[in-house]
Sequence to fold (228 residues):
Amino acid sequence: MVVRSNNIRALPSLLLVPIIVVLLVSLAPCSTSASNSNPSAHKTFIHCLVNHSDSSHPISSAIFTPKNALFTSVLDSYVRNLRFNTSTTRKPYLIITALHVSHVQAAVVCGQKHNLQMKNRSGGHDYEGVSYVAEVPFFILDMFNLRSIEVDIESETAWVQAGAQLGEVYYNIAKKSKGHGFPAGVCPTVGVGGHISGGDYGNMMRKYGLSVDNVLDAQIVDVQGILY
Ligand SMILES: Cc1cc2nc3c(=O)[nH]c(=O)nc-3n(C[C@H](O)[C@H](O)[C@H](O)COP(=O)(O)OP(=O)(O)OC[C@H]3O[C@@H](n4cnc5c(N)ncnc54)[C@H](O)[C@@H]3O)c2cc1C
Fold:
């Protein structure tokens, strides 16, 4: 559902409003039983993910364990700070490249059940690598596949998924209108998920405020794995 705001419509320049899938999670404590190299622990965790996600969108094709040949390239694709990509950096237990919202829900539920810390990554631009580095056994919930952008010029709104990058948002708006924009950051590869959940400023800030000031609605998965 997209909610329209009178404030937005009253602005002399036209704005589009991105809506994001934001995930709110509590960080599960370190597991004493989980181990990066324990294959049976992997199996039970994956079993949990399969059981808690929508079977019409199989989560198995979204899961990358360290044994998968693509594991390293998936992990590295959104490591934007190479200081946190050394041979001694702790690697995730596995990576879930969510393809459907039920994968996000399953990750939240199963991460807690299995005492694994969940790291949610959208664009990977966190300065401290918070979205892909941890001191304890962890897995990454990667959002890069969930990056659709639906711009509706008539209502001056847009639905944007968390894995989209700012440059993609600007480009998709510009494809539909030369008179619309969205106030957000200057780096085109910053992810919408981490950017908007942090407030965020850019070149249009003095006139239109922060990105988050222009968000009208959001789909949220809460700590219980419930979608709102
Ligand atoms: C080169 C560069 C340029 C930048 N320019 C600007 C700028 O112009 N203006 C500005 O305001 N900021 C700027 N930033 C800061 C940037 O907005 C933040 O670091 C932002 O959090 C990055 O979001 P991300 O999704 O790319 O990063 P990520 O590393 O994926 O995520 C950052 C944080 O948000 C959390 N997160 C990610 N996705 C979600 C989600 N879907 N739901 C809930 N939490 C989530 C992560 O767990 C992590 O804690 C810049 C950063 C860099 C590295």
